Structures are given as structure tokens and as C-alpha cells.
């Protein structure tokens, strides 16, 4: 996410907040720290991985997708479910923390010192978990042996899709939706090549859901699953 995009977001948010009776609640970082620790412990990944180290967090968690049986994704989904229910205020506490603005601004409307990119990357990753453990679980399970190999053998390619999107948006944020569509195609292609149409839809939707965190206006970006009639 570019700094320019964040500035526009914050201006619109603060103007809208002051013009309404809405109440903004920032992330409770004490609880987020506790819930992140529980998540990491459940997956046996390094304890220091959190919203400030998202590339490493992603690498460690998605590394579990590489397991050539269903236990990898299932273990991630169990830990994710526990993470979502860990907050004392339930779904509200989770939503306040899996929110770019909730991570960037504290209760006094001051900066939390988390960078825009850290906030976006963290929320993107957990939004992708939500998909993988929800609508995306059955397609992954149907082709887990093949899809796990894509994560294992095509990690560099998949990471390149993410990096290209980030760099493109940073240089030209007005074209974010076009770059998002490119990222979806880029991310889905290794799954299409190795595993077929259903897996390609999964890869496309996994990336689309993540990008939509910062660019919900890109409603024309969608992933199509072609089925034989």
C-alpha cells in the first residue's frame, strides 16, 4: 500500500468520523500480542513473528501448506479459529485488530508507529487465512497433494507476484485495480499449470481477497471457476 493511499484513507476516515456518530475502536495490542503468541505456539513457529515481520510470518505459516497431506492446512485453520476467538470482546476485538486503520491509529487518533505496509500486509495475510479456512478449504482439500507441491516448488514465483503488485502500486496507485487483476492472474497461474481450473480459482481468490483489504473499490476484479456442464 502506498503512503499516498494511506493519507487519502486517513483523511476520509477522520472526516467521516467527525461528521457522524460512529465510534472508532483501535486494536487492543495487549490482546493482539497474546493472541498472536497463542497462534504461533499452536503452529510451532517462532514466537517473535507478528505484524512487524509479516514476510517471515507468511513464509512460516504458508510453509505448512506444503505438507503433502491435509494436516498442514487443517493445523493452520485450527490455530486461526483459536486466534479469532481469543479476544475478550469476541468478533469485535478481532475486527478491530484485523483492520488497517485499527493497526495504524490508537484510541487517541495518534500513530501506533506501525507502518502502512506492515498493517496492510498483516491484515492481508489474515484475510487470506479467512478464505483458506472457509470457502477455500474444500477446493484445497480436493487437490491438496498437488496444491501443496505448488507452494513448495513455486514459492519464488508466488512471492514475485506479491512483490510486483506492491512495487507497481507504490509507483502508480491510481492503477491499483489493474495491478490487482494482474496479481490474481500471476498467483493463479502456477496452480493452473500444475493442478487445473479449481486450484487456479483458489489461487486467484486467495490473492484477490488479500488485495481487497486495501482496495475494496476494485469490484470488477473477480475470479471465475469454469465447470463442465
TrEMBL record:
It comes from the Eukaryota. Keywords: Signal. Residues 1-22 form the signal peptide. This is Uncharacterized protein. It comes from Plectus sambesii.
Amino acid at each position: 500500500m502506498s503512503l499516498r493511499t494511506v493519507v487519502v484513507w486517513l483523511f476520509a476516515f477522520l472526516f467521516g468520523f467527525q461528521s457522524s456518530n460512529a465510534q472508532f475502536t483501535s486494536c487492543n495490542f495487549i490482546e493482539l500480542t497474546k493472541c498472536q503468541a497463542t497462534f504461533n505456539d499452536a503452529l510451532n513457529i517462532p514466537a517473535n513473528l507478528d505484524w512487524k515481520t509479516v514476510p517471515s510470518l507468511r513464509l512460516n505459516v504458508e510453509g505448512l501448506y506444503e505438507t503433502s497431506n491435509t494436516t498442514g492446512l487443517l493445523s493452520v485453520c485450527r490455530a486461526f479459529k483459536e486466534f479469532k476467538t481469543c479476544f475478550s470482546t469476541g468478533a469485535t476485538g478481532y475486527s478491530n485488530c484485523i483492520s488497517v486503520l485499527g493497526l495504524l491509529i490508537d484510541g487517541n487518533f495518534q500513530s501506533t508507529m506501525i507502518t502502512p505496509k506492515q498493517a496492510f500486509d498483516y491484515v492481508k495475510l489474515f484475510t487470506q487465512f479467512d478464505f483458506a479456512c472457509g470457502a477455500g478449504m474444500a477446493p484445497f482439500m480436493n487437490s491438496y497433494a498437488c496444491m501443496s507441491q505448488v507452494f513448495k516448488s513455486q514459492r519464488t514465483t508466488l512471492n514475485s507476484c506479491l512483490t510486483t503488485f506492491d512495487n507497481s502500486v507504490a509507483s502508480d496507485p491510481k492503477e491499483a485495480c489493474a495491478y490487482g487483476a494482474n496479481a490474481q492472474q500471476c498467483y493463479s497461474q502456477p496452480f493452473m499449470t500444475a493442478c487445473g481450473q479449481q486450484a487456479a480459482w483458489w489461487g486467484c481468490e486467495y490473492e484477490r481477497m488479500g488485495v481487497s483489504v486495501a482496495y475494496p473499490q476494485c469490484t470488477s476484479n473477480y475470479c471465475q471457476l469454469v465447470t463442465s456442464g
